[in-house]
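Internal QA ticket QA-208
Title: Verify multi-chain structure generation after dependency bump
Assignee: T.L.

Test input:
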Amino acid sequence: MTPTYYLLLSALLFTIGVVGVLVRRNAIVVFMCIELMLNAVNLTLVTFARINGELDGQVMAFFVMVVAAAEVVVGLAIIMSIFKARRSASVDDTNLLKY
Amino acid sequence: MDLAQGGPATALGVPSIDVAAVLPLLIIFTAGAVGVLLEAALPRQQRWPAQVALSLASVVGAGVALAFYATGDFERLTTFRAEEASSGALAVDAPALFLWGTLLALGLLALLLIADRSVEPGGAFVSRAALRGNAGGTDTLTTEKTFTGMQTEVFPLTLFALGGMMTFCAANDLLTMFIALEVLSLPLYLMCGLARRRRLISQEAAVKYFLLGAFASAFFLYGVAMLYGYAGSVHLADIANAASGTDRSDTLLFAGFGLLAIGLLFKGSVGPFHTWTPDVYQGAPTPVTGFMAACTKVAAFGGLIRVLTVSFESTSWEWRGVLTAVAIVSMAIGAILGLTQRDVKRMIAYSSVAHAGFLLVGAMALTEDGLSATLFYLLAYGFTTLAAFGVISLVRDSSGEATDLSAWAGLAKRSPLVAAVFTFLLLALAGIPLTSGFVGKFAVFEAALSDGMAPLVVVALVASAVAAFFYLRVVVLMYFSEPAPDGPAVTVPGAFTTTAIAVGTIATLVLGVLPTFALDWASAGGFTF
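Actual output:
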C-alpha cells in the first residue's frame, strides 16, 4: 500500500481528463472530463495528506468538491442555453468566432 | 500515521478576524447577496433602480472603508506579519490595498457602463439567457423589444466577480486563491452569455470561456496539490520556507509551479494561454468585456506577483527563463496577430495580450521598483481599456454595435469628439508620451532593466513599436478616410456612459502628465507575508 501508487493513479486520471477535453466533441463530455481532472486532484490531495500525516489535504478536497458543484451549476446552465439556441451541444458547431 | 489523534480539539480556536481590514470585501459580498434577494423580492419595474443604487453604493462604501483603513493607521500597512487578517488566509498589505482601490475604482466605472440604458434601449443584457437570435444581423425578439426594462441579474454577478477578484489578489494561501479564482470566474462566464444583440456569438463566447476557464483552473488546482505535497502546506510563506534549503524533490516544486503558472497566466490572458481572449472579448456584451479586460487583468497579475514574490523568490533563477519565453511569445502574438484583425474588439483583445506580456516583464522583476511599476501599469491600463470599450459601445448601426473596422472609416467627420477621445485612448494603449501608457511602460521597462533583463526589454520595445502600428492604423482610418454612406451613427450616451468614458479618459491623461502621486501610492510598500 505505497501512497505513491495513488499519486500515479491520480496523474493517470488527470491525463485521461486532459486528453478527453482535447479530443471529445460534445460539450457535456468535455465538461465531464474537466470534472475528472478535478477529482484526480482530490485523490492527489488526499494522498499527500496521508503521506504528510495531517488533515489539511482532506479538508481541501471538500473545498474542491464544493467548487466543482458550483461549476456544474454554471456550466450546465451555459451548455443548456447554447443547446436551446442551436439544438446541438457539439463544440465543433460553435464556430462563429474565429481568427 | 494516526490522523484520528492528529490534534487535540482545543487546537480549533475561533479565528480572529480583523474586521476593519476585510470590511471592503464584506461590503461587496453582502451587497451581492442582497442583490440576489432583491431580484427575487422586487417587482420587475423597481429592480433596475434598486440594483443600480445598491451596487454603486456598495462599491463606493467599500472604497470609503478601504480609504479609512489605509489612511487611518499606517502601522498596519508595514507590520502585517504581527497583524494577520482573517487568520492569515488574506494578506491585507500595501500592494493588496492598492489593488483593492484599483479594482473598486475600475469596478465602479464598469458598473456605470453596465447600468447604462441609453445606448442600447433597455440595456445591453437579455432577460432570458437561452433566447435565440441571429448571428450577425438584427434580432427579431419581439418580447424583448416591448419590454424596455433591463435584466438586472448582472449587477449581483458583477459584485460577486468583483469580490472574488479582491479576494484573489489578497489571498495568502493557495486554497483561498483557488476559491477566489472560481468566485471571480463563474459570474464572468455567465455575464458573457447575456448580450441582448448577437445572441449566438454571445452564448458561444460564454461556452468557450467556461470550458477553457474550467480547464485552466483544473491545472491551477493540480499545481496547488503538487505544492501541497512538496511543502506540506499551501501557505505562500510555507512554500517559500520549504523551497529555501531543503533536500526535498524539486520535481514536485517545479511541476507545481508550472501548473500553477498555467492557471494564473490563463486568467491574465498571457502569451500562449490567450486563445480564449479574442473570442470572448468579441462575443461578450461590450460593458462586460470592459469589466473583464480591466479588472480580471488586475486580479490575475496581482495574484501572480504575490505568488512569484512571496513563494518563489528564492527559486527565481530556475523559472525566470521560462517566464521570459512566455512574455516574449505573448508580446509577439499580441503585436503580430493584432495587425491582422478586422474587428475593433478583437484588436483590443490582441492588444491586451501584448499588454499582458509587458506586465509580465514587470512582474518578473522581483524588486520594489518592479512591483510598484506593475501596479501602476495595471491601474493605468485598466482606466484606458475601460474607457476604450465605453467608446466602442457608442458606434452603432441598425444591427447593434458596428465593431468591424471598415465601419469606423471617417468617423472623425461624423463625430469629432468621439474620434478624438478614441484616438487619445489608442495612443495611450500604444504608449505615446503624455499618456498613462507611456509612464506605465517606462516604469516597467526601467525596473526590468535594472534587474538585469536587458534583452527582454529590447524585445518589449520592438513589440510595442509593432503594436503602435495597428493602433495608428485605426487613427488614420478614422481621420483620413471618407465615411461610408450607410455607415454607423454615433449614439449620444447617457449620463452613466459619459461619466465612465470621461473618468477613464481623464485618468489616462492625469496619470500620464502627473504620475508621481500614483507611483508613490503604488510603491508605499512591498508584499509582506
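Spot checks passed. Residues 35 and 68 of chain A are 7 Å apart (CA to CA).
Status: verified.
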